[in-house]
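If you are new to this repository, start here. Below is one unmodified record pulled from the training split, so you can see the exact layout before writing a loader.
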Amino acid sequence: MALNIQTFKTRALTALIFVTVMLSGLFINGYLFVGLFITVMFGCLYEFSKIHTLISGPKDFKFYLVSLFYIVVPIVLLIGFGCNFKYYDLFKNNIYNSYVPCLIIFSIWINDTMAYLVGSFIGKTPFSKISPKKTWEGTIGGVILCVLLIFIGTEFILHDNKNIQSNIIISAICGIFGTLGDLLESKLKRTAKIKDSGSFMPGHGGFLDRFDSLLIATPAVFIYYIIFTLIKG
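And here is the target side for that same chain:
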């Protein structure tokens, strides 16, 4: 029992520190935001390098190409969302808007939490052999509740009627593609025969364990952003 309590305390403290760091990076200013996600990028690259070595041996051209599109591009896109893709202005004038980065990250957090809760209570149908604990009930419930909560937050907390439709779509995209990102990383770990991608967060795993959903959801949101921009004008 003592071990379980200690494990819980470790996980809770680690989670509290993680959330504090994330919120600080998202809300204080653009420099912290960039610094936070550059750190995330290098952490993910380091862990992916170790996983690649376990699966395929020494790094080759394929590793660098996959790393570019799997890790570097999504992080660069997320930073771009924070400055409307005016990177020069972000660094020169610290022009930073946390709206879209927060929308993406909060949608992923909500989806993960709701999928876990729904799956725990009513989950019966396995979703994928890659991740046996995931269920169709939890996955679908997570997306639905994510969209619902983002709608409530946009409508009744932010009072942002202008962006409510796009926020609903983005939250759905994050729920769906975030889940695919989680499955992709689970597949990589199973192939490499490891439980966690790293250990920077005691009790919670590594960088890839924490940001796997973000790496797939962000490019998907960017594609929607491009399509929406073209349709709008």
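Two things worth knowing about this chain: The two ends are 61 Å apart (CA to CA). The chain has one domain: 2-232.
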